[in-house]
Amino acid sequence: MQASEESELSRRGLLVGATATAAVLTGPAAVAQPAAPAPSPITPPGGPSLTKVSLTVNGTARDLDLDTRTTLLDALREHLHLTGSKKGCDHGQCGACTVMVEGRRIYSCLTLAVMHEGDSITTIEGLGTPDQLHPMQAAFVKHDGYQCGYCTPGQICSSVAMLREIEAGIPSHVSADLNAPAQLTPEELRERMSGNICRCGAYSNIVDAITEVAGRQA
Ligand code: FES
Ligand code: FES
Question: What's phi and psi for 107, nearest 5 deg?
Fold first, then answer.
């Protein structure tokens, strides 16, 4: 064997040996790491996908061009500038974003706007006006049912829809008799409003306000 061939073989041997050693030292997972980071699943390759969405918001027809990932809450706040509905957690945990869709209360942060094509949405702005408050708004003012007020739009939308649920005979987890009309006890109201958190702890005044309106409706 020629000296140059010997030297070529020993170089190859050295490279093979070095690669094997590196694989043992770093492990198969490290060797298998992709060179470039995976593309973010949040950004579709072709950019955002827009679609037309028609809603009736507080009695007015609204046509929007929205990214299909837009939540109902963001459509209301960012696109229609109805900032009464609040973003507390954006995760369905606080109730600050509660609005009514077709008369039923819903966390608007947990639903996409495109899912409500043609639906009728009522936000706090659609319940009353500063000059002519909705009875529930007036009762919250009268009973001091808030401190900072951040949860209040959601509390009020939720309580208006909640009283309709009672009227419709829908029982709650604490209703003693599922077939009898619900009693408007503080326990019943607290249970039914348990999806709306108030960090200021205005709960007893909120229950007083709802009880007054419920009493008037009864
Ligand atoms: Fe929707 Fe908190 S912002 S539940
Ligand atoms: Fe402040 Fe309810 S009034 S969070």
Answer: -80, 110
Kindly identify the ligand whose nearest atom is closest to the C-alpha of 153.
Answer: 2
Q: pLDDT tens digits for 176-209?
A: 888 888 888 999 999 999 999 999 999 999 999 9
In the reported structure, the alpha carbon of residue 150 is separated from the centroid of ligand 2 by a whole-number distance in angstroms of 5
Cα of 137 to ligand 2 centre, how many Å? Answer: 14
Q: Confidence band (pLDDT; 50, 70, 90) for 30? A: very low
Ligand 1 midpoint to CA 88 (Å)? 5
> Does the beta carbon of 197 sit less than 6 angstroms from any atom of ligand 1?
no
214 touches ligand 1 (CB under 6 Å): no
Cα angle 57, 136, 109; round to 5: 45
Domains and CATH numbers, the chain: 49-127 (3.10.20.30), 128-218 (1.10.150.120)
Mean pLDDT value of segment 138-161: 98
Nearest CA to ligand 2 atom 2: 198
Rounded to 10°, the helix 135-142/152-167 angle is: 120
Q: What is the mean pLDDT of the chain?
A: 86
* pTM of structure: 0.79
- For residue range 54-69, list pLDDT tens digits in order: 999 999 999 999 999 9
